[in-house]
Amino acid sequence: MYQQLFLEKQFTETLKSIARRADLKLYVERTPQLNRLLRQAASRYITGNFRQDGLEAGRKLVAKGYAISIEYIGENTTDATECEAIVAEMKALISDLGQAGISARVSFDLSHIGLSLYQELAFSHLMNLAEQVQGTDVELFISMEESSKTDDILSVYKQAVCVYPNIGITLQAHLTRTPEDLASLLSPSRIRIVKGAYQESSDYSIPRSPELNHRYLELVESAIRQGHHVSIASHDEVIMDEVLERGWLSDSKAEIEMLYGIRPDLASRMQNVGHPVRIYLPYGHEWYLYLCHRIAEFPPNLYQAVIDMVGNEEVERMQAYVERG
Ligand code: FDA
Hints:
The protein has helices at residues 2-20, 22-30, 32-42, 51-63, 80-100, 119-133, 150-163, 178-183, 210-225, 237-245, 264-272, 288-296, 301-310; strands spanning 67-72, 104-108, 138-142, 167-172, 190-194, 229-233, 254-259, 277-283. By secondary structure, the protein is α/β, with parallel strands linked by helices. The longest helix is centred in the N-terminal third of the chain and has 21 residues, at 80-100. The structure holds dihydroflavine-adenine dinucleotide. Dihydroflavine-adenine dinucleotide is lined by residues 143-144, 170, 172, 192, 194-198, 208, 233-236, 257-259, 262-263, 280, 294, 297-298, 301.
């Protein structure tokens, strides 16, 4: 048992560092057969390569009573022209959501739209997007990246939210600084609380543990008490049981948010007893890092990935979100 836990921890750390290796990513991209196989495994978690795929999945989930977040996936863009193209794609997404009458949250990494070049670029793109969503049913939501970027991300967010209040921010419970970051936000804000997907030093982060769950719940409670709109973004049943027991979902300002393809059974169960559940739908070509994170945070997903790579049956993923019996 001890050996298994040790191996799982090592596996998780290795996969998270593989995720950061640009040379490996390039190798995957340039090796057609490997690329095809991994893309097949990623399709469990990514709605498709194109905006239409995300919108189509979104439409089906909305029809089943879920709220949705949607992300044109990617991060760490280091070319200004590419940033422009990404913002253009996001603007088209916002416009298509409006035309389809879908109320949604558009999520993104600030490093996808300029933060990896300079802060002002990300800020001006964010303001541009925020201007477009004014008066629509779309809200913008900023994801949280590695801790080396936390200050910059919070700084851009805080400047923008003063002007456009329908921008949300993600906070990571695993960073020891997060209670202070939460306390520094204007109230009420739109906040998503996650455990944290990135590999961080133990000097300033808490690993997956009962202590982290305790910290996570403390943050959610504190955010609700401060009057924020809170997205409880987790697939952890222990967390969900506590959330139900503490009655946090009867507060209309709190909701559950889960990633597409992960624990659809749990999402469906929560939704079927009347709790607000939002599903996070990524689309696009930049699925490599995302796939690595989803496998790293739950190693049995590696078995699933192998099955998905060799299996040739097309699974109707949406079926998993429907309550059966
Ligand atoms: P945890 O990882 O502790 O796992 C607990 C249990 O949940 C597992 O035992 C398993 O049953 C289930 N589970 C968890 N992950 C699973 C998986 N991949 N497959 C199957 N079962 C799984 N992170 C970040 O750093 N910045 C961000 O901006 C975001 N944004 C974000 C948005 C949304 C909507 C969600 C749900 C998550 C994020 N994350 C994120 C990811 C987050 O930080 C975290 O890595 C994952 O949610 C996994 O943590 P859990 O709380 O789910 O539980």
